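Meet the record:
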Amino acid sequence: MSKKNTCAPVTDFLQMHDRIAGMLPNASRLMSLQKACEDILMGHFGASEVLQLEKTQLIIGVPSQAGAARLRQKLPQLQRELENAGWPVETIRVKVRLKRQAPPQYTPQKKPLSAEAVAELEKLENYLTQSGTDPALATAIHTMIRRHQKQPK
C-alpha cells in the first residue's frame, strides 16, 4: 500500500507564488536538517529547532538556558555527525528563544446591582416602553433587570 503525499496540493499552491516558491527549498532543507539533528541527538534535541543554516554556520534555537547548556555539551558530536552525513556545518550557534506566554485570561466579574440602580433601570424601562422611542433598548434593560433578579444575593 503506497503512502499518499497529502502535502502535494499545498506545495503546488505555494509554488504558484514567486516569493513563497523561493522559500520552499530553504524550508525543505531546514526540515531535513532538523530531522538529521533529531536523529543524531535523539532525546537531547528535545524542543530545540533549527533556525538557520547560513553558509557553514548552523543556528539552533532552544527554549531555555538549561536546554542550551545541555545542547552545548553535545555540539562537537552533532557537528561531527552532520559533517559525516554531508551537511556543510563548520560552526554551530545556540540561541535561547524564550516562548512567549499568553497573557492571563481576563474574566469579567459580575457585580450585583444595588437596589437603587435596579429601581432607576425599571424607571428607564417604563419610560422607554411608554414613549416607544427605543423598544430594543427597553427589551435589553428588561432582560438585564430579570437576569439581576435571578442572581443569588
Residues 115-150 form one domain. DSSP finds five helices and three strands in the chain. The two ends are 66 Å apart (CA to CA).
